[in-house]
Amino acid sequence: MQVSVFDTYVKKKEGGLMHFDILVPVELRYDEVIGFGREYLRSKEQEGQPISAKECKFCHIEEASGEVKQDIETKGYHIIEMQGC
Questions:
Q1: Given pLDDT bands bounded at 50, 70 and 90, which one contains residue 22?
Q2: What are the structural domains, with CATH classification, of the chain?
Q3: Which of 4, 44, 39, 2 is nearest to 22 (CA)?
Q4: pLDDT band at 20 (very low <50, low <70, confident <90, very high)
Q5: 7 and which of 46, 49, 59, 72 could share a cystine (Cβ 3.0–4.6 Å)?
Q6: Residue 46 and residue 33: Cα distance in Å, rounded?
Q7: C-alpha dist (Å) from residue 54 to 34, 36, 58, 76
Q8: pLDDT tens, residue by residue, 33-43
Q9: pLDDT above 90 covers what percent of the chain?
Q10: What's the gap between Cα 58 and its chain centre?
Q11: Cα diameter, the chain
Q12: What is the chain written as a DSSP string?
């Protein structure tokens, strides 16, 4: 399964920066990717923080690992937490 990787940087409510990747099936529309980003931010108590094309940019396409495939089949996306998450 090929997935698109979106490199995402969001300012936290209490200051600092969250850096995470959003991995989705390649055929997904960009507005759906942003929706998944908002869902993830809610799960981290960062609801309402700006997330748009400025914060979330397409990076590359890669082959999905088993864990990524499982998350995508279950919830539609996978998050890789990089920094400040």
A1: very high
A2: 2-83 (3.10.510.10)
A3: 4
A4: very high
A5: 59
A6: 17
A7: 11, 16, 11, 22
A8: 999 999 999 99
A9: 100
A10: 10
A11: 37
A12: -EEEEEEEEEE-TTSSEEEEEEEEETT--HHHHHHHHHHHHHHTT-TT---STTTEEEEEEEE--HHHHHHHHHHS-EEEEEE--
- CB half-sphere exposure, 73, CA atoms < 13 A: 8
Q: Is the dihedral of CA 58, 77, 1, 30 positive or negative?
A: negative
Find out whether 80 and 20 touch, Cβ atoms under 8 Å: yes
| The residue to which tokens 């998050």 are assigned | 79
Name the pairing type of β-strands 78-83 and 2-11.
Answer: unpaired
What digits encode the pLDDT tens for the residues 25-80?
999 999 999 999 999 999 999 999 999 999 999 999 999 999 999 999 999 999 99
